[in-house]
Specification:
2 strands; mainly alpha; elongated
Length: 161
């Protein structure tokens, strides 16, 4: 006879929870804590270079596109990551003003030489920051953690569909 798995009881969030109690910790608390700490670390470091994280997103988006996407495409793709619905359009304007982006008559965006130099330097910096965040966490362990998080998102989406 098969038995249904016993649900693990959820304990209150405890940043000092012992390893053997981690299975009882709420994912929302811990994922929020990670998001806040990592985002703050990245944004503070970028700010010391007079760059915002959304500006870096736009530079990377344009570098990774084989064509020349429209302003609207870039804004629409990155808005879900932004803090507000108008942020990405402002970021594009900032980068155009800074001379890191060019826009043609049809509204298509591309990196300027200065923008590519900035992106490449920021990419190296972000790689260094990633090493700090990932210290003591191997690629296999990191991938396993992301698979778990991806599964939890799918579970919640399936439950609310």
């Amino acid at each position: 006879m098969e038995h249904a798995p016993v649900a693990t009881d959820q304990a209150p969030a405890d940043p000092a929870a012992a390893d053997d109690a981690l299975a009882t910790q709420p994912i929302g608390y811990w994922s929020g804590l990670v998001h806040e700490a990592v985002t703050r670390h990245l944004r503070d470091s970028l700010a010391r270079r007079d760059v915002t994280q959304p500006q870096y997103w736009v530079l990377n988006r344009l570098h990774g596109d084989p064509g020349t996407p429209s302003r609207e495409d870039v804004v629409a793709q990155l808005t879900p990551l932004a803090d507000g619905p108008h942020d990405m359009a402002r970021v594009v304007d900032q980068l155009l003003y800074r001379g890191w982006l060019a826009q043609d008559g049809e509204g298509r965006l591309s990196l300027t030489d200065a923008g590519e130099r900035a992106r490449a330097g920021l990419r190296a910096h972000m790689t260094d920051l990633r090493a700090v965040v990932h210290e003591g966490v191997g690629d296999e362990e990191y991938a396993a953690a992301l698979k778990v998080l991806r599964r939890m998102v799918a579970n919640v989406e399936a439950a609310t569909a």
